[in-house]
Write a structure and sequence with these properties.
It is built from 7 helices and no strands. The protein has 160 residues and is an all-alpha fold.
Length: 160
């Protein structure tokens, strides 16, 4: 809101974590921002490991930066992109800490996630079996999502 005020956009300021239309977007943004550093470092390190000879030979063949990126860099760092996607996906399913700190599941139950609901069910209502069943269910969902991600992003590997 302060940034919007500085930019002269006071009419766009709002209580972001109290509005039912923006609360889930805010939580998603915080989770993605939290994982952006790891993703950048993994991709940057993978790009540093690429041999310079590939870029020199492609430059001699007339490839520009865009073609080098799409035909050399992306295919060679695809396993790192896959790893980073799995890390981000697994972290975003584990939303207890972010949502609890930002909203505690509120206002009302708008931002209530499965981990927060499990904790409330177990420790507020003493229904430990039901909470354990929810844990098993979310684990199966996470395993399925990670398997689908690996299937979609998996593929060939290159040796250089």
């Amino acid at each position: 809101n302060n940034l919007l005020r500085v930019l002269g956009l006071e009419n766009l300021t709002t209580a972001w974590l109290e509005d039912r239309n923006t609360i889930l977007w805010c939580v998603s943004f915080v989770n993605l921002w939290r994982m952006a550093g790891l993703t950048m470092m993994l991709c940057f390190t993978a790009m540093l490991m690429l041999p310079e000879s590939l870029f020199e030979s492609s430059h001699l063949d007339g490839a520009g930066y865009g073609r080098q990126f799409s035909k050399i860099v992306l295919p060679l760092i695809k396993p790192i992109i896959q790893l980073s996607t799995v890390f981000t996906l697994a972290t975003n399913f584990k939303t207890f800490d972010t949502v609890f700190v930002l909203t505690r599941g509120g206002p009302g139950n708008i931002s209530m996630t499965v981990p927060i609901y499990m904790t409330d069910t177990a420790f507020t209502f003493a229904e430990f079996g039901y909470a354990a069943t929810m844990g098993v269910g979310i684990t199966l969902v996470i395993i399925t999502a990670i398997a689908l991600t690996n299937r979609l992003l998996g593929g060939e590997t290159y040796e250089y």
